[in-house]
Amino acid sequence: INRENGEFGPLDAFLHENGIPVLMVLPEDRMIARQYSEGHLIVKALPEYRERFTNLAVNIGKLMGKTGVR
Question: N vs C: which end of the chain shows fewer Cβ within 10 Å?
Fold first, then answer.
């Protein structure tokens, strides 16, 4: 979920009803938008988000049946 800024009932209901997992949530954050708009990688410009993106890769791997991430 990109630019999350609080609960959004219709989205939560849709995801739940359709069995769609949320793999990652990024908050609505001006620093993310600025870095991205300037062409910077978020994980390099804002290292506090690195763990979230690492977990995203792991979660994608799990959904695909992989045991590790390269």
Answer: C
